[in-house]
C-alpha cells in the first residue's frame, strides 16, 4: 500500500506545544500494525511515532479504520501484524487492562456511563480502579476525595458532582468520560470522536477543555474527529486513514493541501 507522506514530528506552524522536539524517544511507536477479521483486512501496515506532549488527530471517511486502529492500540482487539511500543516497551501482546495500567487511557465513540450513578461516584470508582482496586469492591464513600475533586475541577464538573449521569447534557457526559480518564493520570489519551452527539453550543467548551489538557497539562493525545474546524488549531499533526491504511501524516496545512487526501474524500468536505 506504500508509506504515507510524513512530516517531521513536533509542533506544526505554531499550533503545538513545542515540547515534542525536545524529547528523543516516542511515547508510542507503531510498526507495520495490521488487523484482519473473517478474511477481511481492516487495518493494514500502519506505522508512526508519537512524541511526548504531541496531539495527533485522525481523520478519514466512514469505515476507514480509525476506531479499529484505536482498538488495536488500546488492546481491545489483538493485532494480527506488526507491533506497538509504549515508552519503548513492546505492549503488542498485553491485554487492554494491562495497557491501561501502563498509562494508556481511552474514551469511546458512544457513551459508557452508568445512568443512575452520580458524577462523583463515576470518578471515585475510576480512582479506585486506577489505584489498583477492583471495580467490584466498592470502598467507603469519600475515598479518593482529593483525586475526585481535582478531576471534576479540571473538567468543569464540580457543580455537578452529585448529579446522576442520566441528567447530564451530552457535552457534560463527554466531560465526565474525560474526568474518569484523567483520574488515572494517563500517559497517553486516545479520544474516539469526543464531540459525537454533543450539541453545537457545547462543542466550543469541550474543545477548550481538550485543548487545555494538551497545552496546559502537556497531555499526549490521539483523537479521532470528523470536524476539521475542531481540529484546526488543536492538532500538531493530522493522520489520514483510508481503506485501513495511513494515507498521509503531516501538518494540518499540508494534509489539507494534499491532492491524494482530497481524492480520498471525493465529494465530501474536508
Ligand atoms: N469486529 C468487526 N468485524 C468485522 N468488520 C469490522 C469489525 N470492526 C470493524 N469492522 C469493519 O472495519 C471497517 C472499519 O471500521 P471502523 O469502525 O474502524 O472505521 P472508522 O474509520 O472508525 O469509521 P467511522 O468514522 O464511521 O467511525 C468497517 O468496514 C467496519 O465495518
TrEMBL record:
Signal peptide stretch: none
Listed InterPro entries: AAA+_ATPase, ABC_AA/LPS_Transport, ABC_transporter-like_ATP-bd, ABC_transporter-like_CS, P-loop_NTPase
UniProt keyword list: ATP-binding, Nucleotide-binding, Transport
Span of domain ABC transporter: 28-268
Entry keyword RNA-binding: no
Higher taxonomy: Bacteria, Bacillati, Actinomycetota, Actinomycetes, Kitasatosporales
GO molecular function, one term: ATP binding
Highest taxon of source: Bacteria
Name of the protein in its database record: ABC transporter ATP-binding protein
Organism the protein comes from: Kitasatospora herbaricolor
Amino acid at each position: 500500500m506504500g508509506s504515507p507522506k510524513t512530516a517531521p514530528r513536533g509542533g506544526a506552524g505554531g499550533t503545538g506545544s513545542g515540547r515534542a522536539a525536545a524529547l528523543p524517544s516516542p511515547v508510542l511507536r507503531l510498526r507495520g500494525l495490521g488487523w484482519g477479521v473473517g478474511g477481511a483486512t481492516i487495518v493494514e501496515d500502519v506505522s508512526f511515532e508519537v512524541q511526548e506532549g504531541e496531539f495527533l488527530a485522525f481523520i478519514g471517511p466512514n469505515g476507514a479504520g480509525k476506531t479499529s486502529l484505536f482498538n488495536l492500540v488500546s488492546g481491545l482487539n489483538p493485532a494480527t501484524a506488526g507491533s506497538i511500543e509504549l515508552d519503548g516497551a513492546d505492549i503488542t501482546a498485553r491485554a487492554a487492562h494491562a495497557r491501561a495500567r501502563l498509562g494508556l487511557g481511552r474514551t469511546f465513540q458512544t457513551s459508557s456511563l452508568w445512568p443512575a450513578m452520580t458524577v462523583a461516584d463515576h470518578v471515585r470508582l475510576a480512582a479506585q480502579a486506577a489505584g489498583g482496586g477492583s471495580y467490584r469492591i466498592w470502598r467507603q464513600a469519600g475515598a479518593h476525595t482529593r483525586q475526585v475533586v481535582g478531576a471534576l475541577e479540571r473538567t468543569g464538573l464540580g457543580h455537578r458532582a452529585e448529579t446522576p449521569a442520566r441528567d447530564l447534557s451530552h457535552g457534560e457526559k463527554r466531560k465526565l468520560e474525560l474526568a474518569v480518564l484523567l483520574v488515572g493520570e494517563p500517559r497517553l489519551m486516545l479520544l474516539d470522536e469526543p464531540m459525537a452527539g454533543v450539541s453545537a453550543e457545547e462543542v466550543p467548551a469541550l474543545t477548550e477543555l481538550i485543548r487545555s489538557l494538551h497545552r496546559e497539562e502537556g497531555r499526549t493525545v490521539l483523537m479521532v474527529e470528523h470536524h476539521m474546524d475542531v481540529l484546526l488549531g488543536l492538532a500538531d499533526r493530522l493522520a489520514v486513514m483510508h481503506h485501513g491504511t495511513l494515507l498521509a501524516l503531516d501538518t494540518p496545512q499540508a494534509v489539507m493541501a494534499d491532492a491524494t487526501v482530497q481524492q480520498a474524500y471525493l465529494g465530501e468536505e474536508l
